[in-house]
Specification:
- By secondary structure, this protein is α/β, with parallel strands linked by helices.
- Helix content is about 30%, strand content about 15%.
- It has a ten-stranded mixed sheet with strand order 2-1-10-9-8-3-7-6-4-5.
- α2 (about 95-120) packs parallel to α4 (about 150-165) and α3 packs antiparallel against α4.
- The chain is globular.
- The structure holds adenosine-5'-diphosphate and magnesium ion.
- Magnesium ion binds near residues 52, 53 and 80.
Amino acid sequence: MPTTAAPVSVPVGPNLSMFDPAFLGLDEFGAPVHIPLAYRRLLIAGEPDGGKSSLINTVMAHIALCRDARPVLFDGKLVELGPWEDSADEFVGPDMDHAITTLRRLQTVMNNRYAWLLAHGRRKVTAADGLKAIPSLFDEIALYATVLGTKAQQDEFITLFRDLVARGRAAAMPVIAATQRPSIDIIPKSLRDLFGYRAAFRCTSAGSSDIILGDNWSHAGFCATTIKPTMPGVCYLIAEGGVPALMKVAYLTDAHIATLADYAAWVRTGDRTNPHPAPAVLAA
Ligand SMILES: Nc1ncnc2c1ncn2[C@@H]1O[C@H](COP(=O)(O)OP(=O)(O)O)[C@@H](O)[C@H]1O
Ligand SMILES: [Mg+2]
C-alpha cells in the first residue's frame, strides 16, 4: 500500500539582514558588542586556542540566519566552517585550485557589481537594491598563503584575496578572515589597514599584537599579551580607527552550531543537514 508522503514544510526564517548589526559578545562592562557586516572587513588573529574559530562561527551564525547573505567559505581544516556548508554558495577545503577558482569567480561578480553601480550612477550597494551580500569567510588564511600549492599559486591567492578585501566593501562583499600567525609575511601593514575591524586574541609578543591592532597600541597599554591562556574567547577589538576594547566573544558549542546550521540549511534550502542534530541540544 502506498504510504502518504509527509507534508513538505519549512520553518519560518529569522529574517535577519546583513545590513543589521551582528552580535559578537560582551565588552568588559557587560554591554553587548555589535558590528555591522555588510560593508565591513574583519581580521581575526592570535595564538592557537585563543578563540578565533569561535568568533568566526559566531559571525557565521548571524550570516547563515540572514535572508540576504550568500556566504562563501574557505576552511582548509574543514571542521571549523564545515557544519555551515549547506548554507554556503561555495565551500572550499584544502584545495588550492578550488580556492583560486573561487576567488576569481568572486572577483568577476565584484567587477559586475561595480559595472552595475556605475551604470546606475551609484557608489555602493544598499539594502534597498535587493542584491544579496556575499560574505567570504576564511579560517586560516596562512594555509592558503603559505602552505598549500606552489609559490605561484600562493602569490595569486594573495593577490586575489587582497583585491577582494580592497574592493569588496561597496559591492556588499565583506571579508572575514582569521589567521594563526600574525606575522608581517601573511598580513603586511597595507593589507591589515584595509580591515576596518580587527580582533586580537592572545598573542605571545607585543610585536604580534601590534601587527594586528596597529602600530604602538602596545605602548599605549593595549596589548593582547595581557590576555591569559585561561581566558579563551577574550580579545581586543579595534573598530574603524577607534581605541581597542576588551571583549568576550559569545561562544557557540558544537551542539549549538549543529542545531543552528541545521535550522539555517532548512530555512534556506528546504533540506536539513545530514546528520540532523539530536533535538533539544540548545538546552544542553
Ligand atoms: N568565547 C569563548 N568562550 C569560552 N570558551 C571559548 C571561547 N572561544 C573559545 N573557547 C575555548 O577555546 C577553545 C579554542 O577555541 P578556538 O576558537 O578553536 O581557537 P583558535 O581558532 O584560536 O585556535 C575552544 O574549543 C573553547 O573550548
Ligand atoms: Mg581555529
